[in-house]
What we know:
By secondary structure, chain A is of the alpha/beta class. Helices cover 41% and strands 10% of the residues of chain A. The interface between A and B is medium-sized, with 35 and 30 residues.
Amino acid sequence: MTNTLGSDPHAANAWSRRRAAIAAAPPAERAALLAAEARAARRDIVRTIGHARLGHIGGDLSIIDVLTTLYNGVLHVTPEEPEWPARDRLVLSKGHCSCALYVTLARAGFISRSDLADFAADLSPLNGHPAHGKVPGVEFSTGPLGHGLSEAVGVALGTKLQAGSSRVYVVLGDGELQEGSNWEAAMAAAQYGLANLVATVDRNRLQQGARTEETNHLEPLAAKWAAFGWKVIEADGHDHGQLLTAYRSEPDGRPAVVIAHTVKGKGVSFMEDRVEWHHKVPTEDQVSQALAEPAQ
Amino acid sequence: MTELAASELFDCRVAFAETLLELAAEDHRIVAVCNDSVGSSNLVGFKERYPDRLVNVGIAEQNMVGVAAGLANAGLVPFVCAAAPFLTGRALEQIKADVAYSGYHVVLCGMSPGMAYGQLGATHHSIEDLSWLRAIADLDIVVPADPQQTAQAVRWAAAARRGAFLRIPRFKVPAISEPHSPFRLGQADVLREGSDIAIIAAGSMVSRALEAAAQLQADDIGARVLNMATISPIDRDAILAAAETGAIVTVEEATVTGGLGSAVASLVVECRPVPMRILGIPRAFAPTGSAGFLLEYFGLTADHIAQEARKVLARRHG
């Protein structure tokens, strides 16, 4: 096991070519290329969690299409120079879905795909929740919920104060929105007119123990964000074409939120929309079964 | 009354604000972040001079600290200025995860700490801050004792490489430190030599410790006085040297559970056990009273420090 992770030039080159192909393709083909990449990432997630015997597989599978779209079609980042000052930022506020982020970072060459075998292993930099300074490409140490939006507001504001061009993308869980700090941050983002800030809500409607609406209901969610002064875009969180359109929509002076309607456990039939797969770990047989499914 | 007790008293927030303004002129990366506390953090001058570099997030401390970590990620040097009880209590998890564990250079400035808010009551007292923050890794904790040290600590903090908490006194204190001596993290200042007992104090209690030492001198008791302005990382060498006197009294305007006294005691008990007395606020919420009254009420006076020092010495000799 390596304690210091570094970029993987081979993977970074492949990612760079993939990005170029996606950028050059006509829209329908573009979505198909992203879908193929997301399928590969899903397989990596299932394998990585099956190997580590730990993870939050339901949320990883619901958010992977968003992360795949961002890293392959939206973010300006440089795997070989992860702290490039002018980079776009991705803040994973729902830090428990670290595996989806690590897989995405590995597929972009920030780290090596072979590092994924160390996910959650003793002394591995790939902690169950991502830590800044341990993993290239991880901007903040997240895990406790309700932190990422404030951090992203700070980055977006700092960029604006310095007339920088970076855009800041933050991925929030839907259950996470029950933390009041999100709404402090939402107010501040609108107050400061942070048009360089784009939040995504992984609206899979499930939290750890039950449905969000049975626990502490979030609806009308779009109206809430709008009332806080945000531009609201709703999208199918598994439709890469819709996600690309959402992320490429012209800023209008307000912060924007993409409410990504997703299915927890998406892509593995026996996990989809089932609350117990929040952090249940698939058995060896279940891993094989998942990898054999047509969606994979 | 001793010479020190009769000297001019200062609100360290003034030195804090002046130094921050000087630094802001030198370094465009410096920004101030506050929670509607422009007045109470003495940021009016900063706001007039650098309106765009004052980030007032409103009454929202969790967001304030998270935003500061984000500003640091964007390459700025944020000074978060807020009343210490709310900064540390309300945003403790953000201090831990967003600043310390994320490794960002954010300067957390706890204004009006201890019982400075007096009659406003225990909700507004910040006596737990040192205990809470001392438990967090990768966070430096600095408690300046006077205006000069406040100014130097602010200068140090601007150039630090990681998160720091500065406890900025509001309760007025006399000037006791050497002018223009730069702040050195983790190094106590020996303000008075003595070989019979050591009094280790921080912040508003340092000048009182000096007065107590003067009283003890009248009884031919030589008390060494240490200004322990860094609570974390603690100055091990200075404490072990203090233990060589054979007795230690610590004094802080904070709860006795977990702050300066605890830091000293845990080192002393492991490495060089000597009789000790930890002065501070016991596990109690303060009754109604002015800040000055409450310090007397909890025995945080020169007279009481001297009295407790004599008791510790009696134990040592007994």
